[in-house]
Amino acid sequence: MNTFELPKKGDYPGFYESYISKIQYDNYPDLIKSQIKELKDLFSSKPEGWDSIAYEEGKWTPKEVLGHVIDTERIMTFRALCFARGEKKALPGFDQDPYVLNARFGQVPISNLLEDFEAQRKALLTLIRTLPDGVLDLVGNANGNPITPRALFWIIPGHFIHHLNIFKERY
């Protein structure tokens, strides 16, 4: 695998610092794998039906949050792939709310969502193993901001930690 240190400030827009700063572990593959187990353990520890109840009116259910995490990881991975391959065109942002609404995650069995999350994580790791040296720090533009593949890859586990903490605190 490529040298995979955390990104430096300036490799990503400042608003992603809230995710990057949550990461306390620098072994990327182990972190990605441990988060799969942590998520499965959390969901299996809850009573049946828990995943379909929002903690507050107007908030997403745990299924919807998980679907959002999966979608976000796919988008971040796609952006990283594009920039690692030398894409020079700016990539668009995305509005998470219509994604969740249109996905109808509430109708998807939780077992399918958990399987999907694990498959996405495994695909992420196999992609990273195939990247040639030097491409992690190429700069692309996503949502009007410069960002590197390295930063995008590290935002993924930080974003997960953000939502895992919400699961633990509010659900």
Summary?
Residues 45-165 form the DinB-like domain. With 171 residues, this protein is mostly helical.
CATH class: Mainly Alpha
Number of strands: 2
Strand sequence of the main sheet, in spatial order?
A: 1-2
Element string (H = helix, E = strand) = HHHHHEEH
Instruction: Tell me the helix content.
Output: 55-70%
Distance between the termini: 36 Å
**Low-pLDDT windows of residues:** none
C-alpha Rg (nearest Å): 16 Å
CATH architecture: Up-down Bundle
Would you tell me which CATH topology applies? Answer: Four Helix Bundle (Hemerythrin (Met), subunit A)
Per CATH, the superfamily is dinb family like domain
**Structural domain tally:** 1
Output mean pLDDT.
96
Note the main sheet: 2 strands, antiparallel
Q: Please give the count of helices.
A: 6
Derived structural class: mainly alpha
Globally, the shape reads globular
- β-strand percent reads under 5%
Protein name: DinB family protein
Organism: Algoriphagus boseongensis
InterPro entries: DinB-like, DinB/YfiT-like
Domain DinB-like: 45-165
